[in-house]
Prior knowledge:
The chain has about 475 residues and is α/β, with parallel strands linked by helices. It folds into two domains: about 20-215 and about 340-470, 3-Layer(aba) Sandwich (Rossmann fold); about 220-310, no CATH class. The protein is built from 16 helices and 14 strands. It has helices at about 5-20, 85-90, 145-160, 180-195, 215-220, 225-230, 235-240, 245-250, 255-275, 280-285, 295-310, 335-340, 345-350, 380-385, 405-415, 460-470; strands at about 20-25, 40-45, 50-60, 70-75, 95, 105-110, 120-125, 135, 170-175, 205-210, 390-395, 420-425, 430-440, 440-445. Strands 1, 2, 3, 4, 7, 8, 9, 10, 11, 12, 13 and 14 form a twelve-stranded mixed beta sheet that branches. The termini are far apart.
Amino acid sequence: MDKEYVKLLLLLLVLLHHVDSASIIRSLPGFEGPLPFELETGYIGVGEAEEVQLFYYFIKSERNPEEDPLLLWLSGGPGCSSLSGLLYENGPVTIKMDGYSGGIPSLVSTTYSWTKIANMIYLDQPVGSGFSYSKTPLLDDIPSDTGEAKRVHEFLQKWLDKHPDFVSNPFYVAGNSYSGKVVPAIVQEISKGNYICCKPQVNLQGYVLGDPVTAIDIDDNYQIPFAHGMALISDELYEVRNISMLFFLSFFLAINRNEVANKQKKQKKHLKNVSIFVQSLKRRCRRNYINVDPRNAECLKLIKDFKKLTSGINVLHILLPRCEESSPNCYRYKYTLSSYWANDVSVRDTLQVEKGSKIKWVRCNRNIRYRKDIISSVPYHKNNSVNGYSSLIFSGDHDMVIPFFGTEAWIRSLNYSIIDDWRPWMINNQVAGYTRTYANKMTFATIKGGGHTLDPKQMESFIMFQRWISGQRM
């Protein structure tokens, strides 16, 4: 057989393989009737031998897919499936909670999907998340923050190569929680690629982050001030009140000066005891509540008291109860139902999941091997600002995992001037949150009553995103 013919045949087989790796989905198990939006699922291989197969869900904009922005959505973890974002935060369908009695859970349409105004790629990354898998054991090439920035960039290049109609669309990287470490690095990687090496060029415009992990010494350090501001811990535990001044005033008002002198002597020892009792977290820990010097016994004791006081709080949303995800009465029961749905054989067949690639789908895979090698994402934010990329950073104001106090702090550290100062943003003449815009094209917003993820506040998050992405004043 002619060698050129063999090469051509092999090339044709490769091309056919790539075409077959993506499937248009017209209907989904559990959803009545045909889908009212265009869904594609598939794998993109990354790495030298494409041993890592990253699974994605692509949903075209329901408005004008040819011109609307293209967003790549990453869920946190690391190890959480992007299906969680699709079903519970900003996608066009969700799991129906009411009336479940077994079998495949029902899916229903949502009202405030970001796909109303944007094309969305929901990506399962790193490998091991959702339906993404590796053809070979990853012995040395363990996923990491910086490694994922490169892999996601490679994914995007290959995805756009297969979807050339979207190359010119304004492109944004988006995500929440732990993706706050990775998304700014991905933006930097894409930006560098546009200048140095890579085709097709990505029409990169900016990024969106919700309740983003940034750095432990920022995020975790602001949990205690947040707890104090939310009345979860007392004033006395958080900061010293000037009790000795109160005693002085009481003595001063005494009628008999001798009585005052006697009281002062009697209270001298008592005042020492009081001062020990009211030693505060802020003073004894010097506002550093992590990596505490083991010799600082007073600080460690106070942190222990803090943890005891807040042990009954749902840190993901302090207004919602702590409950077991497997309980039908728990607001998190929907996550259990999504596991039932994604592990159903008919669902996997419909989504064209590679047979044998995953024994069990889990919403968040906590067992993946992963290196957290970005200590702080602040330098990436600075670099992205210098390069002119816009950003929307938002926080649910009842999230204690990544308190908005800390997010505000690292944004302030960028030292950009304020061009639109702190103010409420409104929906139907009601306060939906507060916002501020900086000269580096960064907008910070809170969602009033929101938690660590968008699921309780889909309407507010949609309107916030719609205004920002269209350049309106929020």
